[in-house]
Amino acid sequence: MEASYNILVIDDDAFMRDACCQALTKHGHSVILAKSGHEGLSLLEKWSFDLILLEMRLPGEDGLLVLAKIKDLEPETIVVMISGNGSIENAVQAIKLGAFDFIAKPFTHDELLKRVGQAQRNRQLNIENLYLKQSRNQKTQGTEIISNSPAIEKIKEMIAMVAPTESTVLLQGESGTGKGLVASKIHGMSRRQAGPFISVDCGSLVSTIFESELFGHIKGSFTGADKTQYGKFEMAQKGTLFFDEISNISLEIQAKLLKAVEEKSVSKVGDHKVVNVDIRLISATNQDLEKAVAQGLFRKDLFFRLNVVSIHLPPLRERREDIPLLIKYFLNRFRRREGKVIEGFSPKAMKALTEYHWPGNVRELENTVERLVVFARNKTITTQDLAYSNTVLSSVPMKDPLCLEEMERLHIIKVLELTEGNKTRAGRLLGIDRKTLRMKMKKYQIPETSS
């Protein structure tokens, strides 16, 4: 997907302004022209630009002074200075003041486009590095969908059909069914695959800083904001923005999210300047959003915006034929990582794992296999290993006539006992986030034992 940028050209020479405009718009860029530093700064107070081309010598104005003001208003904006007097001294001064590069007149269209490309690659690299710093502690997910069940084969077909489009997608299913994996797969097969894939965990973000996480903030906008920061929308520029468990966001943030999606623009917290964004939106939920709309907990207009294409992921208990395949996949991964010689599972252990109802779905199964590999004492994992490693399913009768909800309630109680009431660890074992766990505890009237 060819990248296009918002570019401001500040030059008193009408011929130069028009020449830059023609060269840049021909290649899909959005260009705004200003004939003076004052006019350019006025535009910068209203809009955010990816790149500014700034003439060094402006009538009655010092281009370097204008550069300093630009950097004060918008520190992250990339500025390329242009001048008919291309001295080394001028270039050094401009670079010291924060300019990315310096181009001397006269220059060809190809030279201009080359500099623009270099400047934007540098900006995108800075954004990607920032995202990597923020997300390096997150667990890395693979992009392979392991299954041979008809239900998942149908989903794979839907992914192949929807991925090349620009449609928004809503992924629905219980926690741990692989919604994040499907979102990543859609991005990887899309025309935006070269762009970033940015994930927002709506279940773990604190509501008071959610707006800042989404839209960014400027220095001094609130206590602790010691520098200007990009939001997830800007990080996802030219790529995909994935909202995981979107039902957890407040009505206030829903309204701001809807505005951003409809207008394809955002403003940083504490700032009124508009930043145009070009992203594809994928959302996921483990809740019934239509029911949430009826209860007034989720905006109807936002639901329609998100639910253009809907994909429902079935729970693991409805595709038990995939369980042995997934166990083998996870076993191979974790035994290589741990350097252990483990040949497989005994028939009884495999039967116990296959017949279990897995309320945490694939994520719970993955965590269980990892734990079994860590505690494995022999080449074959048996039912004794299930008990030794505190795998909770070993204590639940496989043919228990209890209803599914009662099984889930007992399972949650057992996990909370094993984790001594630590809901973060319990949620990790169950394959659900902390907020979902608290909701289930309330539903099943499970008392709070610890924070």
Architecture overview:
There is one protein chain. The protein is an alpha/beta fold and 451 residues long. It has 3 domains: 6-133, Response regulator (Rossmann fold, 3-Layer(aba) Sandwich); 150-314, Rossmann fold; 318-443, Orthogonal Bundle (Helicase, Ruva Protein, domain 3), CATH 1.10.8. It has 19 helices and 16 strands. It has helices at residues 14-26, 37-46, 63-73, 88-96, 109-135, 150-162, 179-188, 207-215, 232-235, 251-263, 289-294, 300-306, 323-338, 347-355, 361-375, 383-388, 404-418, 423-430, 434-443; strands at residues 6-10, 30-34, 51-55, 57-58, 61-62, 78-83, 101-104, 169-172, 197-201, 240-244, 265-266, 275-276, 280-285, 309-312, 344-345, 380-381. The strands form 5 sheets. It has a 5-stranded parallel beta sheet with strand order 2-1-3-6-7, with helices on both faces. The protein has a 5-stranded parallel beta sheet with strand order 9-10-13-8-14. Strand 4 (57-58) and strand 5 (61-62) form a beta hairpin. The longest helix has 27 residues, at 109-135.
